[in-house]
Write a structure and sequence with these properties.
Blueprint: H1 15-30, H2 35-73, E1 95-100, H3 106-120, E2 134-139, H4 150-159, H5 180-186, E3 190-198, H6 202-208, H7 217-224, E4 236-240, H8 261-267, E5 271-273, H9 276-280, E6 292-295, H10 304-307, H11 317-331, E7 339-344, H12 347-353, H13 357-380, E8 385-390, E9 394-395, H14 415-419, H15 425-436, H16 442-457, H17 464-471, H18 479-491, E10 500-501, E11 505-509, E12 520-523, H19 524-534, H20 539-547, H21 585-588, E13 590-591, E14 599-600
Parallel strand pairs: 1-7, 1-8, 2-12, 3-4, 3-7, 4-6, 5-6
Antiparallel strand pairs: 2-11, 8-11, 9-10, 13-14
Length: about 600
């Protein structure tokens, strides 16, 4: 710019420069060093002093930190949250919560995640709590089939062994195997079972009872309250299935005999609850006394999609889980041992069996909330612990897509269809049955079915053919299955079976460091082995104890053979030993059925 001084223009010297020049001139005349030279000589000295001081302070700090570290590491390990690793064992007091999402496969999570994002207006990166805790997958086959049932699946968890479909903690040779819950009880842990189905159903049964076939629910109920070779092993029981505890002379009973197990349980010290009011009296667990038996439904607790409208009648899975955790935590506060709790989202499986997508997404969300509640408990509780969650199998062969016609398929499914549903197909089918029991006019029946579809499932475009098929008493497909197919087709959700499938299922945990043996792909038996190792349990000794009780008899039972208390044998034509589904046994088996050629089977039965 005009008027700017050139970059290298001469500039006046500062006052300091003038003084310095004068000193240097005097030094030249007198032969003596100036003060500036003396300043240069003193700099190395002060630098050495500074470095020495810094080194001294650093040394002191290291010594102090070493002393503090030595002091901390010399403390006892009780209460430590340090993860254990290969070659080691967890030590100190600890808790284990095992969660089972019965029938929930990977696609169940996919469907529920997308449904929730749609229904709640969430972004696509908003995921379920479970999604953030996946650590591996589990292979689910049983000893008798590539496709397991819940009994064999839960036996793998409880005993750590494969067994045949239908076995309740019984090995293929029909001898009982000790469970992690039984071993935990014998080791001084408090124990609990929380489910949304009957407490006598396969999964809970496998942790506290032993029978040859899962259908022996009356006998399972007896063992769960302490009529058992080991005595009482369960301190807390929450779920449904009250009908198996009431004498057959009582309304609401489904027992085959007149035994009153509620009275038996009370004689054994159990406090008994049978309704929402009783559950609420626990005050979240702060007003509870163990042992505790809570049977909140005659059979199964309703699907969550229906229960939410009956919240004053039935507690939710999350509520039962939180209350059980509080009760068991308080009960072990002054104990050297913690607790073992099994929590099952039981009715995910039932929704899969019914091919009911709307019911299933609500069941998975309810399970996800219960899992979050357990994480919250572990975060706040002073005792270290871990939660491991997995499924026994997948149910329904679910697919998040469906080809509705022979032309090129559409690449989509519609969660909005499920968002319009307010009830399960089980609920509306029960309503239909009640209506048809008193109404015989076809026009009124058709009108009512259309009303059920609109109000219950949000379906407003049902065809006359669909309505008539539902009402057809000769239809080979049940009305409930038809309701489910109507909503599934419109949502373009696919199902391949009303039974189970052999797909691998996910494993989740609160910490991959605490559950490191389950990272990756594993047999379901390894989950049972992990639980025994984590709590340092002697399950083998528990098995020996049970097997030495071969002559034990339940009340009124007869001892006519070893292990008669396990129930009747399966029959000569049913093979449960020596089956090998890993190396082709399912291909070698063949059956001869009257009027038919031989066909292959992997079920272990002659039929």
């Amino acid at each position: 710019m005009a008027g700017d001084e050139p970059l290298l223009a001469p500039r006046p010297s500062s006052e300091n420069n003038s003084i310095r020049n004068a000193e240097e001139e005097d030094a030249l005349l007198t032969g003596e060093r100036t003060g500036r030279g003396q300043e240069r000589r003193s700099w190395p000295f002060w630098r050495e002093v500074g470095l020495f001081s810094w080194a001294l302070l650093a040394t002191i700090a290291v010594i102090v930190l070493a002393v503090v570290y030595q002091h901390e590491t010399s403390k006892p390990n009780v209460g430590s949250r340090t993860p254990w690793g290969p070659g080691g064992k967890p030590t100190g007091k600890r808790n284990l919560i095992f969660m089972v999402s019965d029938g929930m496969g990977p696609t169940s999570l996919t469907m529920t995640r997308s449904y929730r994002q749609f229904a709640e207006g969430l972004p696509i990166d908003d995921i379920l709590v479970l999604d953030g805790h996946i650590i591996g997958t589990s292979r689910t086959r049983s000893s008798s089939s590539l496709v397991t049932d819940s009994a064999a699946g839960a036996t793998a968890f409880s005993c750590g062994f494969k067994s045949y479909n239908g076995a309740i903690s019984v090995l293929p040779d029909h001898s009982p195997c000790g469970t992690v819950l039984e071993a935990a009880s014998l080791a001084g842990y408090k124990t609990g079972l929380v489910v949304t189905t009957r407490i006598t159903d396969a999964t809970p049964a496998c942790f506290a009872s032993h029978v040859n076939m899962r259908q022996y629910e009356d006998r399972i109920a007896e063992q769960e309250i302490g009529e058992h070779p080991l005595g009482r092993v369960v301190d807390l029981i929450f779920g449904g299935g009250r009908c198996h505890f009431l004498p057959n002379s009582t309304d609401g009973s489904c027992r085959a005999d007149d035994r009153d197990l509620v009275s038996v349980a009370k004689e054994k010290g159990y406090s008994y609850l049978d309704d929402r009011k009783g559950f609420d009296s626990l005050n979240g667990g702060s007003e509870a006394k163990l042992p505790l038996l809570g049977l909140f439904a005659e059979k199964d607790i309703p699907f969550e999609i229906d229960r939410r409208n009956q919240n004053d009648v039935y507690p939710s899975l999350e509520e039962m889980a939180r209350t059980a955790l509080k009760i068991l935590s308080d009960a072990t506060a002054d104990s050297e041992q913690g607790f073992f709790l099994m929590i099952e989202g039981s009715r995910i499986d039932h929704a899969g069996h019914g091919n009911d997508p709307a019911a299933q997404v609500h069941e998975v969300i309810a399970y996800d909330k219960a899992f979050a509640a357990v994480l919250d408990f572990l975060e706040k509780d002073s005792t270290p612990g871990v939660v491991v969650s997995t499924s026994d199998h997948e149910t329904g062969g679910l697919a998040a897509a469906r080809q509705l016609h022979t032309t090129y398929p559409e690449y989509k499914w519609l969660p909005g269809v499920l968002a319009n549903a307010s009830h399960s197909t089980e609920f509306i089918d029960n309503k239909l049955r009640e209506f048809l029991s008193t109404e015989t006019k076809k026009n009124n029946q058709q009108r009512y079915v259309r009303e059920l579809l609109e109000k219950g499932l949000g379906i407003t475009d049902a065809t006359d053919e669909e309505i008539d098929s539902i009402l057809d008493p000769n239809s080979p497909i049940s009305s409930q299955y038809q309701f489910a197919d109507i909503i599934s087709r419109r949502a373009q959700i696919g199902w391949s079976t009303h039974g189970h499938s052999g797909v691998d299922v996910n494993i989740y945990a609160s910490s991959s460091k605490d559950a490191w043996p389950l990272v990756g792909n594993h047999e379901n038996t390894e989950i049972g082995q992990f639980m025994a190792d984590y709590l340092d349990l002697d399950v083998e000794n528990t098995t020996k104890h049970l097997q030495s009780s071969s002559a034990w008899s339940f009340a009124g039972g007869e001892v006519d053979r070893p292990f008669a208390w396990l129930g009747d044998r399966l029959g000569e034509n049913v093979r449960t030993e020596g089956l090998d589904t890993y190396h082709g046994e399912f291909r070698k088996r063949s059956l001869e059925v009257d009027g038919m050629e031989k066909r292959e089977c992997g079920c272990g039965g002659m039929h």
